[in-house]
Automatic annotation (TrEMBL):
InterPro entries: GlmU-like, NTP_transferase_dom, Nucleotide-diphossugar_trans. The keyword Repressor does not apply. Its EC number is 2.7.7.-. It comes from the Bacteria. Residues 6-234 form the Nucleotidyl transferase domain. The keyword Transferase applies. This is MurNAc alpha-1-phosphate uridylyltransferase. One of its GO terms (molecular function) is nucleotidyltransferase activity. Keywords: Nucleotidyltransferase, Transferase. It comes from Rhizobium paknamense. It is an enzyme of class 2 (transferase).
Amino acid sequence: MTIKHAMVLAAGLGTRMRPITETMPKPLVTVAGKALIDYALDHLQQAGITTAVVNLHHFAEKMQAHLEKRDHPRILFSDEQAALMNSGGGLAKGIKLLPTGPLLVMNADLFWIGETAGEKTNLQRLSDFFDPARMDMAMLCVPLERTTGHNGKVDFQMAEDGRLTRYQPGDSKGVVYAGAIAMHSSLLDDAPDDAFNLNIYFDRAIAKGRLFGLDLKGHWLTVGTPEAIGEAEAEMQRQGVYPALTGA
């Protein structure tokens, strides 16, 4: 499936990243010389996304000034300065700025390395995998051993066909949610107007057998604390990754 629109969830306070986030928003924290949000936007750009909504709250003016320097994808801003909307509320509000249709959703504090040049990117694979006739959502997932900076929690059990259920100790294929989703915007037509957690829709989809996962190719990095910056950079050095500063 061709997907041209996306949203990046970027409005959080970044409390675990303090004291860095006392003067800047977490998505502008740099890893290997590039802001976290630019890793996410570069992934989206490489997947063919033309327009991305980014929600703003913490140091919103700094976020907007940074993102206005980008040419691709085109950035639209969803203003949450009056009140944080949590993951679900922020997504439901932000996607109203986009046409109805399929979209990608990414968190702003993670990225991955190790995709194979010349092959489809992880987000292109996710877009192709997403089948709205069978799925409410399709999400990138990754085994715990291919993560850096994660807290060790396993989120889902993945069946052979990719169907996801909540992980229980002893399950054979536990995976971590890698912070990227393909979905259709109409899924949130019944969403409340106030703040809520997107996990509500994960659990609804599981109950209907309509939450699916796709294995991420490469290594996944999440950067939620000051210590995680060095951990991510060390892993990038181990893998010989020297990112181009396309979004800086």
